[in-house]
Amino acid sequence: RVNLVESGGGSVQAGGSLRLSCAASGETTSRACMAWFRQVPGKEREGVARIMTRNGGTNYADSVKGRFTISQDNAKNTLYLQMNSLKPEDTAMYYCAADLNQLRCLRWRDTTFDYWGQGTQVTVSS
């Protein structure tokens, strides 16, 4: 399996920045992609950004384009999410996820990844 541990969440004022990290271990060599998702109580889980492990190709939710950047350091098996110009509506529990299946990676917005971290809370105040 793939083990995922997130860090970097916290509270920030609107307009500020946070950088989330996700350390991966276990079956990392066969991983096809990693992604960030978020969820607010009472709402469906939402795909935020995805990156393909081998070629680095990225995709973003429309709501975060131009503000968030997903990146990875494959030598360190670490995923990052740089979040700039944060808005109160970005407040959510953020989850790191990974999958070994290329098709599920391409259909990442379905949020059906096999492996998930414990989540880290991001709170943005007005």
Low-confidence stretches: none
The beta-strand count equals 11
Structural class: mainly beta
Major β-sheet annotation? 7 strands, mixed
Overall geometry: globular
H/E topology pattern: EEEEEEEEEHEE
Number of helices: 1
Distance between the termini: 40 Å
**Percentage beta strand:** over 45%
Mean pLDDT: 95
Helical content stands at under 10%
Q: Radius of gyration from the CA trace?
A: 13 Å
Show the helix and strand layout.
Elements: E1 2-7, E2 10-13, E3 18-26, E4 33-39, E5 46-52, E6 58-60, E7 68-73, E8 78-83, E9 92-99, H1 102-106, E10 115-116, E11 120-125
Parallel strand pairs: 2-11
Antiparallel strand pairs: 1-3, 3-8, 4-5, 4-9, 5-6, 7-8, 9-10, 9-11
Provide an overview of this structure.
The protein has 126 residues and is mainly β. Helices cover 4% and strands 51% of the residues. The chain has 1 helix and 11 strands, in the order βββββββββαββ. The strands form 2 sheets. Strands 2, 4, 5, 6, 9, 10 and 11 form a 7-stranded mixed beta sheet that branches. A 4-stranded antiparallel beta sheet has the order 1-3-8-7, with no helix packed on it. The relative contact order is 0.31.
